[in-house]
Design goal:
heterodimer; A: about 500 residues; Rossmann fold; D-amino Acid Aminotransferase, Chain A, domain 1; eight-stranded antiparallel beta sheet; five-stranded parallel beta sheet; 22 strands; about 25% strand; B: about 180 residues; mainly beta; OB fold (Dihydrolipoamide Acetyltransferase, E2P); 2 domains; eight-stranded antiparallel beta barrel; 2 helices; elongated
Chain lengths: ~500, ~180
């Protein structure tokens, strides 16, 4: 246990969570475990959201659009003051990487649970972070260090490093403003497209160029730094299974990272964080090529969606550590105390339909049966009867499986997916079954284009007789549902002409 | 009771025994206590049925256990079974008529329907516009994703039923191209 540091700062008694969804619930849970009171904030469509139901206090922000609610830093700080919250946890997304918001918190004497604004600025911009990474000797993907001034400069840099190259938005994130360019003829139109996309998405059209690493893995290192000069690396996460540059499955440890590579990546990440004066939780992302060379990609200056896989294999609670660090305490462990044990996998369960172009599918959840049992954790934001709003990202929950080995973790995840029933809206649960039973995935032969290749493959057809058998059972169930469903007086006013028509037609059919 | 269920591209005729139905009537105190004969496509099968809660069934058929869940979404009903989502419809005179009329007028007006609930982000065409096949007509946005709704065929935009900022439901007719 940590000794009381003389310089330990301000005890936190109440935290405002400036977020929604599963991450808000997850942070509220950690606060409750630590005896810290919680304040939720919500938009009009989130009045009955799970995070509002879990918190000690809840306050309205405004209408549904994020720009009028969860991005209103001024309102959030006002509510924090009014409720005497000592600290604000930004979660991920929304205001979590907004340096002005972190400064506004400091000015209002409220602890921002995250890095200092200066470190966030330095590492949040991809071009500035690349410069700092270069200064501490971290390997980077060859390319432009500063933002490109013009298309002419882009031609010169690309010729210098050699095609294929990647064009990226300096202020980027979420896969926006990124183009892969195979040869010189594609550069001019890609430059215009990426620049205008970045301008629209981030308010800055600044681009930079990198050499395209062929079939790279996306592997990232979790770090945690306190205000006493200690910074730990907490192992890596393999995040190569992506669709449109968005992570779909994450695991820890990476099946290709051994102790030596882990130590080298971890020490490089720590060096970068220390050089930038970083504190609290952060993640350094790397591309790793087939020869196990790693290259700095970018830094995420916040808690990440996929942090649970690190928690499972390290046995640490990252939000507890964030709260500890934010109060000025030293980290309670040293690097030699960090051990990875077992294997954890996370699936991001989204309200989107893999059978229909991954169209989003907001709406009412009519049935929810949640998986449980050994080694299963579900960080969830929904319940039966909750209407998933169309205003925010489509994540419903994160399902995490933990087991002694990767193989058992995969089988355990498949078992949990079989138990998982989300009715009323389409979800991507079936996509995970496809990935987790794929031979390439099971053999850990994955890179960032693995999922595109898998989705392009023709689907294996199941035997006709098996499919017919399942359909017959389902038809029997459907018949029982139809024959036994009680008339629903509240669902639809039967007196309207169409309602009366429907029930008449139905009764007639049932009489046959 | 006989029900014709359209499922997985075919129609399945199910005949349920009266004992099964009466035990689910309002006021019935117990569920069926053992296997009952159900007829699936002419074949009699002994089925042990328990309705666990509205929309959740447990079936035992020859000792094999099935959990069937009713999924009522915006686009219709389905049964969730063994990781599959099997959409179904109860065949009745009304749906027969609807099926006959569908697809009958490919040369006439064709509606553009929203594939998902969302909000109209942009309207790209106006009534009277002559459009190519697959030309963008409007953009629907939900959950930070935008989807362009394209003209199903070359023709003239007859009507636009929505305006920018409108909320739409899945299956709602957004525009008509003729």
């Amino acid at each position: 246990m940590p000794k009381l540091a003389q310089s330990a700062g301000h005890p936190i008694r109440k935290v405002l969570i400036a977020n929604r969804g599963e991450i808000a619930v997850r942070i509220i849970r950690a606060c409750r475990e630590k005896g810290i009171a919680t304040v939720a904030v919500y938009s009009d469509v989130d009045r009955a959201a799970l995070h509002v139901l879990h918190a000690d206090e809840a306050h309205r922000l405004g209408p549904a659009p994020a720009s009028e609610s969860y991005l209103r830093g001024d309102l959030i700080i006002e509510i924090a003051k009014r409720t005497s919250a000592d600290a604000i946890h930004p979660g991920y997304g929304f205001l979590s990487e907004n340096a002005e918001f972190a400064e506004a918190c400091a000015a209002a004497k409220i602890i921002f649970i995250g890095p200092p604004a200066a470190a966030m600025r330095m590492l949040g911009s991809k071009t500035m972070a690349r410069q700092v990474a270069g200064d501490v000797g971290m390997p980077r993907v060859p390319g432009s260090v500063k933002g490109l001034a013009s298309l002419q400069q882009a031609y010169a840099v690309a010729r210098d490093i050699g095609y294929p190259v990647m064009l990226k938005a300096a202020a980027g994130g979420g896969g926006k403003g990124i183009r892969a360019i195979a040869s010189e003829t594609e550069l001019s139109s890609a430059y215009a497209g990426a620049s205008s996309e970045a301008e629209r998405a981030f308010g800055s059209g600044e681009l930079y160029l990198e050499k395209l690493i062929q079939q790279p893995r996306h592997i990232e290192m979790q770090i945690m730094a306190d205000h006493h000069g200690h910074c730990l690396y907490l192992g890596e996460r393999e995040c190569s299974v992506q669709r449109r540059h968005q992570k779909v499955i994450e695991e820890s440890p990476s099946p290709v990272v051994g102790e030596d590579l882990r130590r080298r990546m971890g020490e490089a990440a720590v060096k970068l964080a220390v050089a930038a004066g970083y504190t609290n939780a952060g993640t350094v992302e790397f591309l790793v090529d087939a020869a196990q060379n790693f290259y700095f990609l970018e830094m995420n200056t916040r808690l990440q969606v996929e942090h649970p896989v690190t928690e499972m294999v390290t046995g640490l609670d990252l939000v507890h550590l964030q709260l500890l660090v934010a109060q000025g305490w030293p980290l309670p462990i040293a690097q030699q105390d960090v051990h990875l044990r077992g294997h954890a996998i996370e699936c991001r369960i989204y309200a989107e339909d893999p059978a229909n172009n991954f169209f989003p599918s907001p709406g009412l959840i009519t049935q929810l049966i949640q998986p449980a049992g050994p080694g299963i954790r579900e960080d969830c934001a929904v319940y039966s009867g909750w209407r998933v709003p169309l205003d925010y990202d489509p994540m419903l929950s994160k399902l995490i499986a933990f087991a002694p080995t990767r193989e058992v973790a995969i089988d355990r995840m498949l078992r949990a997916l079989d138990e998982y029933v989300i009715g009323g809206i389409a979800t991507n649960v079936s996509l995970f079954r496809e990935i987790l039973t794929d031979a390439e995935f099971r053999a850990a032969r994955i890179d960032t284009s693995f999922l595109d290749r898998l989705l392009a493959k023709p689907k294996p057809q199941e035997s006709e007789s098996a499919a017919a058998g399942v359909a017959s059972i389902a038809a029997l169930a459907a018949a029982i549902f139809e024959a036994t469903s009680a008339p629903q007086p509240t669902a639809q006013p039967v007196s309207t002409p169409s309602g009366a028509w429907k029930s008449a037609a139905r009764n007639e059919a049932l009489r046959a | 009771m006989t029900l014709d269920i359209q499922i997985a591209g075919r129609t399945c005729r199910i005949i349920l025994p009266p004992e099964l139905l009466s035990s689910f009537q309002p006021g019935a105190s117990t569920q069926p206590g053992g296997p009952l004969p159900c007829i699936i496509d002419g074949e009699t099968t002994q089925v042990d049925v328990q309705l666990l809660q509205p929309g959740v069934l447990s079936l035992l058929i020859g000792g094999r256990a099935y959990r069937c869940i009713l999924d009522e979404g915006p686009t219709g009903r389905a049964v969730l079974l063994e990781g599959k989502r099997l959409a179904y419809a109860l065949e009745n005179p009304r749906s027969l008529r609807a099926r006959r009329s569908a697809g009958a007028d490919e040369n006439g007006p064709v509606p553009i329907k929203s594939p998902m609930p969302g909000r109209v982000a942009r309207v790209l065409a106006a009534p009277g516009d002559v459009v190519e096949a697959l030309q963008g007509i409007l953009v629907i946005e939900a959950m930070k994703m935008q989807n362009e709704m394209k003209a199903p065929k070359a023709g003239t935009v007859v009507r636009i039923h929505v305006a920018e900022g409108d909320t739409v439901t899945a299956g709602q007719v957004l525009a008509i191209v003729e």
